[in-house]
Design goal:
The chain contains 11 helices and 10 strands. The chain is α/β, with parallel strands linked by helices. The chain folds into 2 domains: 191 residues, 2-enoyl-CoA Hydratase, Chain A, domain 1; 48 residues, Lyase 2-enoyl-coa Hydratase, Chain  A, domain 2 (Orthogonal Bundle). Bound molecules: ligand LHQ.
C-alpha cells in the first residue's frame, strides 16, 4: 500500500508512524484510518516497537469534519473504520507508544490513549471535544478514560470538553508522562529503544493481563497470570534474562 496520509520510517527496530495531514492538525479521514490500520497490521521485518506521532503542531484533531462520507452513518464509520484501527493499535504485534506532540482532540485523543504508553510534550492538550459538536466520546474513550482516571474526572472531561494539559493528564494517570518540550523527542526515543530492546512477548502478555484484569476477580486474574507466566517461562527471552543476570551482563532479547 502506498501511503498518502501517513509517513512510516524504521530505524534501529523502531517504526515511527507519523500522521501527516498537518494542515488539518492531522484530522482522521477514511484514507488515514485505513493506512494506520494497514501499517500497524503489516509491520516491516525487524520492527520491535512503534511510535505514533503527528506532523506539525498537532497530534490529531479527531474525525475530519470536512469528510462528509464519514458523517452519513456514524455507526458504520465507527464499526467498519475506527474499530479496526483501534484493534490494530491494541493488538499490535509489538508495543506501541503514542508520542503526543501537540493537541489531541476527539477521536485523536482516544487513538493516543489506546496505545500501550502515552508520552506527551508539556504544551500538548487532550480534549474530549465531542460534545462541542453534539456527539458522545467514541474510539474507546468511554472505556479507557474512566478506568484510567475514575468516573468523576472522566465525566468532567467528557461533559465540559475542556483541554486537559499534558501535565494534568500525567498527574491524573491518564498518560505515562509529560516531558518538557525540549526533552520530548529524546525522551520518546529513549522509551521506544527500551521497548525495542526488551522482551516483546512479555510486554504483550502484560498488555493482555492488564486488559483482562478489568473484567476479572482476583482468582480469575491469578489464573491469567499463571497461564501467561507459564508461557513466558518457556521462552528464549526468559532463558536469556536469567542467563544474563547470572553472568552479570546485559540481556539481549531477540524473541518477537
Ligand atoms: C480540522 C479539524 C478537524 C477538519 C482542525 N477536521 N479540519 C467519529 C465518527 C464519525 C464522525 C464524527 O466523529 C467521530 C469522532 C470524532 O473525532 S468527533 C470530534 C472531531 N474533532 C473535533 O471536533 C475537533 C475539531 N477541532 C478543534 O476543535 C480545533 O481545531 C482544535 C481544538 C483541535 C485546535 O484548535 P486550534 O489550535 O485553534 O487550531 P484550528 O482550529 O485553527 O485548526 C487549524 C486548522 O485545522 C484549521 O484549518 P484552517 O484552514 O482554518 O487553517 C481547522 O479547520 C483544521 N482542523 N480540526 N477535526
Amino acid at each position: 500500500m502506498t501511503y498518502e496520509t501517513i509517513l512510516l520510517s524504521v530505524a534501529e527496530g523502531v517504526a515511527t508512524l507519523t500522521l501527516n495531514r498537518p494542515e488539518a492538525l492531522n484530522a482522521l479521514n477514511g484514507r488515514m484510518r485505513a493506512e494506520i490500520t494497514a501499517a500497524l497490521t503489516h509491520l516491516p521485518e525487524g520492527v520491535r516497537s512503534v511510535v505514533i506521532t503527528g506532523a506539525g503542531r498537532g497530534f490529531c484533531s479527531g474525525q475530519d469534519l470536512t469528510d462528509a462520507a464519514s458523517a452519513i452513518d456514524l455507526e458504520r464509520t465507527l464499526r467498519e473504520e475506527y474499530e479496526p484501527m483501534l484493534a490494530a493499535i491494541t493488538g499490535c504485534a509489538v508495543p506501541v507508544i503514542a508520542a503526543v506532540n501537540g493537541v489531541a482532540a476527539g477521536a485523536g485523543a482516544n487513538l493516543a490513549l489506546a496505545a500501550d504508553v502515552v508520552i506527551a510534550t508539556e504544551s500538548a492538550t487532550f480534549i474530549q471535544a465531542f460534545t462541542r459538536i453534539g456527539l458522545i466520546p467514541d474510539a474507546g474513550g468511554t472505556w479507557i478514560i474512566p478506568r484510567a482516571v475514575g468516573a468523576a474526572r472522566a465525566m468532567g472531561m467528557m461533559l465540559f470538553a475542556e483541554p486537559v494539559t499534558a501535565r494534568q493528564a500525567a498527574d491524573w494517570g491518564l498518560i505515562w508522562e509529560a516531558l518538557p518540550d525540549d526533552d520530548f523527542h529524546a525522551g520518546v526515543a529513549r522509551r521506544a529503544q527500551a521497548l525495542a530492546q526488551g522482551p516483546t512477548q512479555a510486554f504483550l502478555s502484560i498488555r493482555e493481563a492488564l486488559a483482562a484484569s478489568f473484567g476479572n476477580d482476583m482468582g480469575e486474574q491469578l489464573a491469567v497470570e499463571a497461564r501467561l507466566q507459564g508461557r513466558a517461562g518457556h521462552s528464549a527471552d526468559f532463558a536469556e534474562g536469567v542467563g544474563a543476570f547470572l553472568q552479570k551482563r546485559k540481556p539481549v532479547f531477540r524473541g518477537r
